[in-house]
Design goal:
By secondary structure, the protein is α/β, with parallel strands linked by helices. The protein contains 14 helices and 11 strands. The radius of gyration is 24 Å and the shape is elongated.
Length: about 375
């Protein structure tokens, strides 16, 4: 038996293998102590670089085979949480939909991850992260004045998807433990990414947010909250919004106070151009020596290769190395029940016998 540590130790999660948000959600739960058993298709393959699949064991099931479907259902009867990311109707056609699973396990939390949700006119349509955040308004808000910029898949797949799925199944699990009744968690990336925009929708309704890019304080419009290319081609992030931080920026960078006194919108464009010219005169790390610890809210824009070596990240052990692969460590931190990476990704079927025995299912 593998020892699990973290606040979710004792939780059993049955994860039907997929891509994007479902495995990432499974990683988050595993990092915090949950026993995550992945149901893989025959022929599935993994390697040590698939960080989002760490910390699981795996059982191979051909869900078109009656005996394997029965095995998957027996596992669902033992699980606290089930995670699936198929299109609406797929699990029902396989005979493993919520009605069947909850009949076998009335306290089961059935987590469903899709782009558009389980119903509505778009429900059956294919899509990817870019499409989901386009519909929510999030993509329109991110980028330059000329065009939206893709925030990789952080806003849809992971922020609006996996994190909301994790929140949803944990909330439903808490309810099930209190009342003995499970339920379906319908998590849509389009809606999760819209939820992430809640504060901005509030500002828009008030009239304190312009519905265009690079026209607001935190979207690249302001000169004091922006990124600047330095002499070596690297970038510096400046977030000096509050007056005291702005004054620290002016003092630390040696900027003429009279010229840069204004933080008003009518001066943003002119002062942004001036800062672009000024920051281009020195390498990024030279600016960091002046500003990173000055209270000016300035930080280097680190590449993924650089970030694990930054002194703060090292002091906090923000990154871990598993099987030679550098990857983010479990978060958040817990004072009494810290999470842990139990092991790296496993191949399909690895640990199945041990898991079935521990879950009380006859192999």
């Amino acid at each position: 038996m593998r020892t699990r540590q973290g606040p979710l130790a004792g939780m059993k999660v049955l994860e039907f293998a997929g891509i994007g948000p479902v495995p990432f959600c499974g990683m988050l739960l595993s990092d915090l102590g949950a026993d995550v058993l992945r149901v893989d298709r025959p022929g599935a393959s993994y390697d040590r670089f698939m960080v989002e699949t760490r910390g699981r064991r795996s059982i191979v099931c051909d869900l078109k085979d009656e005996a394997d479907r029965a095995r998957a259902l027996r596992l669902a009867a033992k699980a606290d949480v089930l995670l699936e990311g198929f299109r609406p109707g797929v699990m029902e056609r396989l005979g493993l939909g919520p009605e069947v699973a909850l009949a076998a396990n009335p306290a089961l939390v059935y987590g469903r991850m899709t782009g558009w949700g389980q119903d509505g006119p778009m429900a059956a349509q294919p899509g990817h992260d870019i499409d989901y955040i386009a519909l929510s308004g999030a993509l329109h808000a991110i980028g330059t004045a000329d065009a939206p910029v893709l925030p990789v898949n952080l806003v849809g797949d992971f922020g609006g998807g996996a994190l909301y799925l994790a929140l949803g199944v944990l909330a439903a699990w808490h309810h099930a433990r209190e009342h003995g009744k499970g339920q379906v968690v319908d998590c849509a990336m389009s809606e999760g990414s819209a939820s992430l925009m809640g504060m901005l929708y509030g500002h828009l309704a008030r009239g304190s947010w312009r519905d265009e890019r690079a026209a607001n304080i935190i979207d690249g419009g302001a000169h004091f909250y922006n990124v600047y290319r330095c002499a070596d081609g690297k970038w510096l992030a400046v977030g000096a919004i509050e007056p005291q931080f702005y004054q620290a920026l002016l003092a630390g960078a040696g900027l003429p106070i009279d010229e840069f006194a204004s933080q008003q919108p009518q001066d943003w464009s002119r002062l942004r151009d001036r800062l672009t010219s000024i920051f281009a005169t020195r390498p990024r790390d030279a600016w960091c020596e002046l500003l990173e610890h000055s209270g000016a809210c300035v930080a280097p824009v680190l590449s993924m290769a650089e970030a694990p070596a930054h002194p703060h990240n090292q002091a906090r052990s923000a990154f871990a190395t598993v099987d030679g692969v550098v990857q983010p460590a479990p978060v958040p931190r817990f004072s009494r029940t810290p999470g842990a990476i139990t092991h790296g990704p496993v191949q399909a079927g690895e640990g199945a016998g041990e898991a079935l025995s521990e879950w009380g299912v006859d192999p």
